[in-house]
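My current task is to audit a protein record that another person submitted. Alongside the sequence sits a line of tokens, each denoting a local backbone shape. Where you disagree with what is written, explain briefly why. This is what I was given:
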Amino acid sequence: MNRDAAEPISELPRGEFAFPGPLRDALVNAILDGTKTATASLLAEYPNDYQPHEEVGALEAVLDSHDNVVCVIRTTEVQIYRLADVSDEHAIAEGEGYADANEWRIGHEQYWRSPEFVEYIGELDIDDNTQVVCQRFTVDERYPIRALEPWRG
């Protein structure tokens, strides 16, 4: 696929940050204002044959809580780390106000153990060796940016 030609937004995979609601709104706003330039997911969320290097250069249409596309991001880097090895730099780049990787881990473990997440993927054993996919991205300026419509749950 030619990564330099703008693909129609309708053909791009959807990027959903957290579940619809206040957390997604906060994350999407952080992307829109440039505070959030990284994200993390559990490797367990991906198919068994997942190849992180194939994600570099990929585009995603970021959705707000109402499934509206608000921007398009381009993945610039993907690394898989043990949970214990996620860096302070990555934690801060997630734009969620974490001062370091320890705070980031506490917040993410709460999310990964939340009833919504457990219902989505099942209950997982999370420890220092849990594999985490750490992604860096930029907003792709070739696509329009739309203001987020706040969640009114």
